[in-house]
């Protein structure tokens, strides 16, 4: 007797999205093409000292993803969470966690997390998507630092996020 084939009906793409970047949008767009429904989980993660409060991050991510959902035909939901990732995945019915990789340092960390998540819940798979070549160096941390120091972040984030980020760091667009 063969095991049933896994299908990616519901996927989960988690992150802090502080702020959401074009790299995040790239991974979300590609993941949405593989799923019937994609939940973008916005981690509360107060320990990271976010620039944006959780409510504003959820609002920004949802606004930036409206066009992605329309283009891909995939239902995309944006939901805040503050619990173990595999517990959140189980709560929303996700069978796969999508993680983006930029560099070798991401790979080391993500493989450890995938292994731990598998140990905690072997029914949830982790799928890695490589960041597109134009996005491999972008991180929210660098975007915030560049913005705070007066640098141009317009090629790293979508327009609404650009305006909100510049306002948060006290700059005009």
Précis, in short:
This protein has 173 residues and is α/β, with parallel strands linked by helices.
SSE inventory with pairings:
Blueprint: E1 10-15, H1 22-32, E2 37-43, H2 54-72, E3 75-81, H3 85-92, E4 96-101, H4 104-120, E5 125-130, H5 140-148, H6 159-168
Parallel strand pairs: 1-2, 1-4, 2-3, 4-5
Structure report:
The chain is of the alpha/beta class. It has a single domain (10-165), classed as HUPs (Rossmann fold), CATH 3.40.50.620. It is 43% helix and 18% strand. The protein contains six helices and five strands; from the N terminus they run βαβαβαβαβαα. It has a five-stranded parallel β-sheet, sandwiched between helices. Helix 1 (22-32) links the parallel strand 1 (10-15) and strand 2. Helix 1 (22-32) crosses helix 2 (54-72). The longest helix has 19 residues, at 54-72. The chain is globular, with a radius of gyration of 16 Å. The N and C termini lie far apart (61 Å). Mean pLDDT is 91; it is low at 3-7.
């Amino acid at each position: 007797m063969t095991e049933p084939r896994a299908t990616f009906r519901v996927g989960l793409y988690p992150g802090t999205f502080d702020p959401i970047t074009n790299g995040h949008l790239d991974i979300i767009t590609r993941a949405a093409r593989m799923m019937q429904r994609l939940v973008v989980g916005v981690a509360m993660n107060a320990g990271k000292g976010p620039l944006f409060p959780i409510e504003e991050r959820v609002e920004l991510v949802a606004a930036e993803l409206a066009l992605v959902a329309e283009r891909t035909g995939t239902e995309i939901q944006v939901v805040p969470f503050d619990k173990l990732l595999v517990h959140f995945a189980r709560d929303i019915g996700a069978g796969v966690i999508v993680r983006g990789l930029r560099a070798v340092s991401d790979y080391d960390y993500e493989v450890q997390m995938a292994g731990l998540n598998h140990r905690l819940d072997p029914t949830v798979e982790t799928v890695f998507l490589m960041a597109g070549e134009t996005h491999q160096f972008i991180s929210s941390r660098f975007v915030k630092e560049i913005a705070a120091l007066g640098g141009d972040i317009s090629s790293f984030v979508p327009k609404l996020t650009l305006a909100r980020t510049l306002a948060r760091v006290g700059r005009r667009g």
